[in-house]
Each structure stands twice: as structure tokens, then as C-alpha cells.
Amino acid sequence: MKSRSLRTMLMASAFALALSPATGAQVQPAQAAVPAATVMSLERCLELAAANNSSLRIEELKSGLGRTRLTEAREQYLPSVQVQAGASLLSPLDASSVTVNLGTLGTKTISFGTPLSDAINLKLAVAQPLFTGFRIESGIAQADALYEAGLSDLEKSRLDLRLGVERAYWSLARVAEVARVMAENVGQVEAHLADARNLAAQGLLTANEVLKIDIQLTDARLALLDAENAVESARVQLNTLVGLPWDAATTAERIDPDEAVVPPASAAGLIEEALAKRPELSSARSRVKAAEAAVAAAKSSLYPSLSLTGDYTYADPNQRVFPQKDAFIGTWSIGLMASVDVGRYPLSLEQAKDAGNQADQGRLALVQLRDAIVSEVVQARLALILAIEESASAKKVVAQAEENDRISGERFREGLALSSERIDSQTTLVRARIQYAQSAIGRRAATAALNRAVGR
């Protein structure tokens, strides 16, 4: 704990020296160790993420699968058409005959001739469902609801990805700002160390004072290294989200902390907008509809099924022609077929009960989701209001710190203030400026969170 406190004190002193006017030899500030990076706008990052993110691609493929299942459900309205063709070689049989007793006329022998030794037939069979106990209608309703739920899930993934990119972007902007200040601080401390060595060479400064500044420079460089590591970590996270190589040299744009601030709308208006836009609610409502359709589909087995059937047979010999002829003859038939599986009644009733329970669970989950969204919107709005107030307060702190630094500088030059007072004022100013820049970035991150809560 003592070493940490000492390091904190040394960092504060380094900040103070960074803002104090240099004397003696002029040394150029050291450049940041971070390599030159490509500045990426938030809009460009969002475009890249929408085009390259693998999680979003998976949701799009799931949506396509839902569309296919809906098409399959609708096609059950179409008639079943079967085409059959066959050829058979029959074992040879002897000719048969029948003797008929004609009473007073005696008997008569009727010969049927030699049976044919081969058979060829072509058959076209058509079955059109007329009534299926609402099974087809329920299946279509269920598939349509699940397809709509998939589209809502896709939209949710887009919003989640947007929020993730914005958070990663503003995180990179925050640590990059800190690294920039740290890099400038290192350059200033190096300049002061050069001045101190010149003064020590002239006998105007003790070696101990030079050593203190040297230690401050070491600590400032360590702080810069920490900041650069944070920049690299944030950069990797952003690159991964937007589909760039992990080691791509990217950085965020610097923002103007003095930009105009738009306060959030009323809580009631935001909640109303969220309940209308949030894709999670749309998905939950669609899944409730799908569960209700599943109940109707389970009950469809309780009703008889009715179909219109027809066939056309073209065969040699045609079995419906008597006596058989060695020639292709066509015949047709048309009729109605009704069927009901009584043995499935107990199972169908249990399936309907289970589907009804799932529908009830979906309705309760929908209510819970609405409540959670209302709470999320309220909390996000309050967080944004707090961020706006913190930014405004930080701006006032900067103004006060600048004025205090100006006064302490004048007093120091006039010999009315100690160097410790001057160091304190300059340290406070550096911290205030960093806090103001970070609060402005935090305000943008809070705005992104509120937009996601509302469903924008």
C-alpha cells in the first residue's frame, strides 16, 4: 500500500511538471509509443460490423430457415400427386374354364383363354385435402409466428451489435485520450529533467532534486505504458467486433467535450416508444402466437380428415376390365375419403394440454419482459441525466482549476506562494481536464445505452 501511495504522489507531481512553464534548454515533447493509427468514425465501425459480424450472419441464416419452414407449411394446401409405373413378368398359367348348368338346356362350358404372361401399368393418383381438423391452418399460423419471431430476434441482434460496437468505440476513445495526455506529460517531464540537469550543472539545483524529477519521469513512462496497454486491449475488442484483423491500427475520433447536450425525453414518452419498438417484445408476442397455434394443431387430431381423391390408370391388361385384354386401356375413379384416428385421442388431449401450458408460460414471460424493459428504460434515462450533470460539473471544475492555476502562477512568480502550492494547482488542473474529457465520452456511452433500451 505504501508503494502504491508513493507512486500516486509521483504521478501527481509529474502531471504538475507537465503544465509548468519550462526554463532553460527547450526539448521537444516525446511522441507517443502508440504507432500511427487509422482514425475510424463510429458510423464506419457500425457499417463494418453489420457487414462482417459472424453472430449477425448466424441470425440471418436462422431467419432464412424460418422462411423455408413457412413455405413448407403453406404447401400442405397443395394436392398430393403421385405417378406410378410398373412392369411385371407373370408365371405361365394354363387356360381355365367354367361349366355352367343351364337346367333344361343342359350345361355350357365357358373358356377364359390363356392368361397373359406380362403386365404394364401407368397410374396417376391425386389427393386434395378438404378438411384436416384445422391442422394445416394451425401449422401455417405457427410457422408464420415463428418466422416473425426470428425476424425480431435478428433485429435484436443488430441492436445488440450496435450497442457493443458503440461501447467498444467509446472505450477506445476514452483510453486513447488518457494515453494522449500521458504521452504529452512524458514529453514535458523530459523537458523539465533537461532543465533541471542544466541548473544542477550551474550549481543552482541539488542532485537530489534532479533525482526526484528523474523518478517522476520513470513513473510517468510507466503510466504511459499502462495507458498504451489499455488502448491496445480496447483496439483489439473493437477490431474483433467490426470484422477487422485484430492487430489493425485503428483508433477513435476525438470528440468535442463542449458540444451541445440534448436532454433525454420524458420517461413516459421513452417507455411508450420502447414498448412499441423493442424487438424482444415483438419476438415474445410472436412466440405466444406460435404456442397458441400449437394448441390448435394438437387438437386437430380430434377431428376427422376429409380428402378428395382421384386416379387414372392406363394398363395392359387393366385389372378393372373383364375379361382381360392384351391392350392398353385407361380407367379413372374419383371419390371422397374420411378418416379419424380414435386411438390418438388420449395422446392428442395431452399434447393440447402441454401446448396450452407453454402458451401460458409465454404470456407470463411477456409480462415480465415488459416490466424489465420499463425498468431498463428508466435506469438508462437516469444514467444519462447523471452523465450530463457530471459533464457539466466537470466543465465547471476545469474552469475553476484554470483560474486557480492562473492565480497560483502569479503568486509563485511574485514569490508569494510555495512550489508545493503551484504543484497542487497544476496537478488539479490536469486531473480536471482528463475528467472532463472522460465525462463527455461517458455521456455518449450513456446515450447509446438509452437508445438500445428504447429500441433505436
Can you describe this structure?
By secondary structure, the protein is of the alpha+beta class. The chain has 9 helices and 8 strands. The chain has helices at 2-19, 42-52, 54-74, 135-201, 207-242, 267-277, 279-299, 345-413, 419-454; strands at 38-40, 80-89, 96-101, 107-113, 118-131, 250-252, 305-316, 329-339. Strands 2-5-7-8 form a 4-stranded antiparallel sheet, with no helix packed on it. Strands 1-6 form a two-stranded parallel ribbon. The relative contact order is 0.14. Residues 1-35 have low confidence and may be disordered.
Distance between the termini: 46 Å
**Cα-atom radius of gyration:** 42 Å
CATH topology grouping: Outer membrane efflux proteins (OEP)
User: What's the count of strands?
Assistant: 8
Mean pLDDT: 82
Strand order of the largest sheet: 2-5-7-8
CATH class: Mainly Alpha
- How many H/I helical runs? 9
The overall number of domains is: 1
Q: Give the structural class.
A: alpha+beta
Morphology: elongated
Helix percentage range:
55-70%
Largest sheet: 4 strands, antiparallel
> Which parts are unreliable, with pLDDT below 50 for 5 consecutive residues or more?
1-35
Beta-strand level of the residues, as a percent range?
5-15%
Helices and strands, in order, run as HEHHEEEEHHEHHEEHH
Instruction: Assign the CATH superfamily.
Output: Outer membrane efflux proteins (OEP)
- CATH architectural name: Up-down Bundle
